[in-house]
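User: For a benchmark we're assembling, each entry needs the component sequences followed by a predicted structure for the full assembly. Here are entry 17's components. Please fill in the structure.
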Amino acid sequence: MNPIFSFRELQKKAKQTTGNTTEIKVAVLGNHTSNFFVKALENQLTVAGFKPSLFESDYDQIDITLIDQESDLYKFNPEIIIVFESVLKLKDKFYSIKDNESQSDFCKSQIDIVQNRVSNIRANGSNAKIVYFSYELLDDELYGNLFSKIPHSFYNNLWQLNNALIDYSSNEPDFYVFDINKYLKGIEEYRDFTALINSDLHYSIDTFAKLSFFLAQFLKAFKGHFKKCLILDLDNTTWGGIIGDDGIENIQVGSLGIGKAFTKLQKWAKLLKERGVILAICSKNTEEVAKEPFEKHNEMVLRLDDISIFVANWKNKADNIRYIQEVLNIGFDSMVFLDDNPAERDIVKQSLPAVTVPDLPKDPAYYVPHIESLNLFETVSYSDNDKDRTSQYQQEAKRKKLISSVTNMDDYLKSLEMKGNISHFNSDDIPRIAQLTQRSNQFNLRTQRYTEKDITEFLNSDNHLTYGIKLKDKFGDYGLISVIILEKNDNNSYFIDTWIMSCRVLKRDVENYVLNKIVNDVKNKEINIIKGEYLPTPKNKLVVDLLSNLTFDNDLEDNTYLLNLKNYKPLKNYIENE
Amino acid sequence: MSNYITEFEFLFREVLENEDIVLANETTAIDIDEWDSINHIYLVVEIEKHFNIKFSSSEILQWQNVGEMIDSVKAKKES
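Assistant: Structure for entry 17:
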C-alpha cells in the first residue's frame, strides 16, 4: 500500500475503509489551526486499519487544557497525547521578549514549559504516551550564519530547544519526540503563506496529510504493529547480476561496477538485523549457488550467520514466504519483502496482501534512499535482547530438524533437556518485560500493553503477583520468554491480568510448568481461586483454549474462567528448575 | 463560463462531500451548509491545485459569491 500524502485523496480513501475494530484514542493539542491535521491523522489511522477517536483541544489552549483536571481531555482519557506547536507562534513569543539576556534564556524557559506540561498530564492521572513535535528549524536570517555565536538568536534557540527535548526524552518514560524537520524537507511548498495570513493555517493541508502519515506509522508501532522481518531477494536486489549466470567473481557488490549501491543495501539490512529485525532470504536459485557469495565473497557485508532463514529454490515466492512465516511464527503484516522484479512483487502482493512489498526504483542507487523514505521500520522499544534474535531463530531451525527425527512428542520434549527459571519481576528485566507486552500479539491472553513505568509499578505492588519466566534447552538460551501478572481481586481470589508467551517456545508445556508454580504460590497465600479471562483480538486465537487446557472451568460467562486450587492436579511437563 | 462552473461544482461536491450541491454565480456560503470557514480554506486549496493557479491573499478576502471566485480563476487562466 502506497502512502497517501494528499489530503483530499486521503479523505476519499478513509471513507472507503470500513469495518475496522481496533480502537485507538488520540488527543491533539496545538497552538495553531489544527483541524486539518486532526482530520488527516484520523484518516491515516483509519486507512492503517484502526477505528480512531480523536480529541482536539480548543485553539491555542494547550496549557489550560492540561492544567484543568476537569478538562474534556482527561474525560476523553486518551492513550496518546500529541503536542504540536507551530514555530511561528513561538517566534512571536520570542520577539515579545525585549532584552537579549531573556532571549538567550528562551530555550530554557520553553523546555520548562514542556516539563510542566508533562507533570500536569501525570498529576491529573493520565498515563497516556506523549508524542511531542520537535520545533521546525526556521531561520529568520536575522543573524545569518553567525547564529551559533549569538545566544539570543531565535534560530540558535530553536536548535537548543530541540536538543533539550531529546535530552528530556531520554530520561522521561513515555515521552517521545516526533521530528517534524525530516518530513518537511521533502515537501516543496510546505507552507501556504496566503492561507497562513487569511486563516492561521501554519502548514498546507497536504503537509498535514504527510506528517500525519508518518505519525500514524509511529502510533501503529505503539499498538504492537511493526515490522519484525525483512525478506530479501538475491539477484539484482542483494547484489548486482545473476549469481547462477555470472558466477561469484562477476556479481556486483563492493568495488565492482555499481556494487556500492548493493553494499549500501546490505549495510542497511545488517543495521536493521542488529536492531532486532530478522533477515530472511527468498530467492529463485539453487541453494548451494545462492549461498556461495555469503560464504566466499569477501566484499559481501551480509554473511550466512546474519540470516535466520535462507530459502533458495524454484518454487513460487508466495509459498516460500508462507514457509518463512511458519518457521518464524510472526504475522504476515510484520514482514517486508524486497525484490527488484515487479512480477515477483506482484505475485506476493496478490497472494499475501498483508506483507509489505515496496516498489523498488529501477536504479539500484535509489534502493536505500527510497526504502528509507518509506519509514517501514518504526519501533517503540529496543532492548539488548533484540540483538540475539537471529541466533535464536537459527537455533529454532535446528530444533525443527530434530523434531523430524523423533516420533513421540514426550521423547522429543525430554530430549531437549529444558531448564526453566521462574522469578518475580526484577529490575534488570523491566525493559524486556515491557517489550514483551508491547510486541506479543498471538500468545497473549488479554493484550494489555504496558510501559516500563507500568511494569515497575507492578513490581512494587503488594496487590500483584508477577512472574518472568526464562527457558534454556540444549540448543541455546531463549532468555525471558513469558510474562504473567496476577492481580489480587479480593481476599479469596487472584485474577490473571496478563499471560504472554513468546511463540518461540510454543508446545513446550511451559504454561503447565508455570501454572504449577503459580498454584503453589497462591495456595501458600491461603487463597484457593484463580480467575482468568480471554479477550479476543484478530491475532490471539492461539490462546482461545489456553485456560480450558490448563483445567480452568468455563461455566461462568463466555470468556471468563475459574480454577479452584483445591482440586488442582499438577500438570505434566519436562522442564526442570534451573 | 459554463465549463468553469461545472468544474467548480465537481470540486465543491467532492470537497464538501455533498453530491447534491448545485452552483450558480450568485451562490454564497449561506446557501451551502457544509461551506464553513474551515472548509473554505480546503476549497481554496483544492481550486488552486485543480487549476494550477495561486490566489493572492487579498483576492481571497474580496470574493462575495461563486461567480467572483470563477472570475478570479478565469482572469488567471485566460490572461
